[in-house]
Amino acid sequence: MNTTESALGRLGELAIEVPSWAYGNSGTRFKVFGTPGTPRTVQEKIADAAKVHELTGLAPTVALHIPWDKVDDYAALREYAAGLGVGLGTINSNTFQDDEYKFGSLTSSNESVRRRAIDHHLECIDIMHATGSKDLKIWLADGTNYPGQDDIRGRQDRLAESLQEIYAGLGDEQRLVLEYKFFEPAFYHTDVPDWGTSYAQTLALGEKAFVCLDTGHHAPGTNIEFIVMQLLRLGKLGSFDFNSRFYADDDLIVGAADPFQLFRIMHEVIRGGGFGKSSGKESGVALMLDQCHNLEEKIPGQIRSVLNVQEMTARALLVDTAALSEAQRAGDVLAANGIFNDAFYTDVRPLLAEWRESRGLPADPMAAYKASGYQKKINEDRAGGQQAGWGA
Ligand code: PSV
Ligand code: MN
Fold this sequence. Notes:
- The chain is of the alpha/beta class.
- 43% of the residues lie in helices and 12% in strands.
- The protein has helices at 3-8, 42-56, 74-83, 111-131, 152-168, 195-205, 224-233, 259-271, 298-317, 321-329, 333-344, 349-358, 365-372, 374-381; strands spanning 16-19, 61-65, 87-92, 135-138, 143-144, 175-179, 189-190, 209-214, 237-242, 277-278, 281-282, 286-289.
- The strands form three sheets. Strands 1-2-3-4-6-8-9-12 form an eight-stranded parallel β-barrel, surrounded by six helices.
- Strand 1, helix 2 (42-56) and strand 2 form a beta-alpha-beta unit.
- The protein is globular.
- It starts with a helix and ends in an 11-residue tail after the last helix.
- Bound molecules: alpha-D-psicofuranose and manganese (II) ion.
- Manganese (II) ion is lined by residues 139, 179, 214, 241, 290.
């Protein structure tokens, strides 16, 4: 086995979680476009996600968003998903769409609003027991728009208290991941703006609490792979929300805007023990997509996304780490940079096509989807009813 083959051998460990909301309609605050074939129910979203997994072998689980994906019987939903060959993954809470949360949720100074937000999370944990989900993902829209609008320290203290109560409700195998975002919908301050705040809050909670890094939630120019390295070093990187951005939180296809950044991130993930299995144990870092397909078709948009992650993971696996360390130790700046870039510039697409075929998958999943007739079928079958939308 040559070095390329043995490095790429680890590719089988790659598993990417897809978000149910990527299959629904989405848009901007200006317009949400409807599209033929869009799911009307969570079952139809799961069926679309299962198609992505069937053609790529990369997306074995689907994340749900509550209440968007609320059903009466979660055990039945789990069985339905299993029947299609996928599992139910992360449960995302939602405290950003009810009028009550206008001034905050887990940080609110209004005790009944804060109670409502905590109870919503406890309900999410109950759902996780029925779905078999491991992670509760919390992203808060909490923040203020104007200096002086509220007591930012008091809000931080209430956040800590609320999180403690939610954390206490977790089962032994369950985890809480706290996502940070530096702006939007609040524009002056947000209550969990950065990895430092998420780290401090999750550290105070305990070993079942981790940070979620959404690649679209940083100021332009931020060195995201540095944050990845640091959180792995501290043992607090729980999950990713992958997407790409040109300007703000654009939620575009991961790897579309800056494949080199995705490569650099995957390099740190692999190096820091955040990839796949080491000594038979899962790394504990969940790779999830958090994207919206406003203009492009949604299912091929998701297929392209998981393939992009696979491609950059393959390139990152090809970094000659021994040669890189040697060049680094020797202080040979250009040699080290050259070794790093050699891996990035390697065209792994033919190898990946072979890799897929050897596993009974289509060599070209995008083409296989086009040829499958699935889109035509759902366009016809899903006439009528209320199409699922991002909800805003
Ligand atoms: C917020 O921008 C966010 O990244 C959170 O993960 C939400 O749950 C998700 O987007 C909704 O699309
Ligand atoms: Mn996110």
